[in-house]
Amino acid sequence: MIWILRASLITLDFLSINVFLILNLGFIFSSERKQGLFLFLFNIWWIIISKLLHLYEKILTKSSEKQYYFLIKGLILFFFVTFVRFAADQGTRFVFSEPFFVPFFKFVVLTSVMMLGGRILIFLYRRKIRKKGSKKFNTVVVGSNNFSANLKNVDFLETMNIWGTYNIDAKQLNEITENRYDSVQRLFQIRNFKNVIICDNALEHIDFDHLIKAAARHMIRIYVIPDLKGVDLKVSQLVTFNGVPIIKSMSEPLEEVSNRIVKRIFDVIVSFLVIVFILSWLIPLIGLLIYLENPGPIFFKQKRSGYLNKEFNCFKFRSMKVNSESDFKSASKSDSRITKTGAWLRKTSIDELPQFINVFIGDMSIIGPRPHMLSQTETYSDLVKKYMIRHFVKPGISGWAQVMGSRGEIRSLQDMEDRIEKDIWYHY
Predict the structure, then answer these.
(1) pLDDT for 316 beyond 70
(2) Rounded CA gap, 387 and 378, in Å?
(3) What is the DSSP letter of 245?
(4) Distance in angstroms (rounded) separating the CA atoms of residues 251 and 249
(5) pLDDT tens-digit map of 411-425
(6) 313 vs 299: CA distance, rounded Å
(7) Would you call 243 exposed, middle or buried from its count of C-beta atoms within 10 A (0-12, 13-18, 19+)?
(8) 261: which DSSP letter?
(9) Residue 20: C-alpha distances to residues 9, 14, 120 (Å)
């Protein structure tokens, strides 16, 4: 049954990409050979993305929210690379023109709708499989603790078929004066359990041992839920170092060397192409416009908080008059410091393009949390929970917070909290 789910998702995704690419952008290719080459490259790229994001793994047990989250990340990355590839082949002037941009936009929308919408039907079928398969996984929860409340998760309940709890706590076991092991065995035999989830930290070592032995005797799988004392700690994975089990609070894909290498290669290639084919002619043009309106430097260079909170010089096209407040006062609506050229640069986000230089030299990445001013980091690190976690990855030209609309002026503490929440969500 799982292979049907996986095959359905893979077929849906590759059909969506290839069909809508040909229907909307097929007119660009000068020959069938060129069309075949492009399709081959884009399919290979989607295979790489799906492998990096594990899009087709743990389909039966992974929550719908996580599957949609990683799919959206993959689509954003795929569409960006597709656009850059067409720009390298056809030229930047053409890809920003209406004859290309409108069909490309249709390709993005139709592909996204088909892949996201198609998963609704596939996940409905998955629910039937879960319910059918759960009959083989009758589960009992032994005890309760501060974390066991999370067992109410719908996906978890359906998969594990938790029909109720049977509390075997220390008090009950103490009342059994003779042969506790036999008593537990009889319970397991009568109830015909398939899984036991233990979340009672009050159990004595000997009682815990009885449960494990009895479960092994009756071929019952044992799961243990630790009590985290009600602390708001995200549990990511359990790792073992020299035989010692350790709970990790965060899943960090970039801890894997292979992921860091792939991301860095992508950053270097794309930033190099942007610098050579776009910034090489854009910098003199924009620089002339900036200087004619307000003589001064073309670039605005500012210290920002980077990877592991290390300072770096962040480059932008200068959009303001030269002033002494730029390092501690953020731009606001109708800010008198902003020039007319600067207003246009900020509106179109062209002022951020020099940051591809930061990406190329390694201070930033294309995708990641936006780098904040040093004064903002100092202020909000004490006000916003988990603020500094955003520095576990390199800052980016654009990030999940910006994609989800959290951009522009920060008017309140809530604005910053919303951004940090999205930054950390991307990091996990």
Answers:
(1) yes
(2) 10
(3) E
(4) 7
(5) 888 889 889 888 888
(6) 11
(7) exposed
(8) H
(9) 17, 10, 20
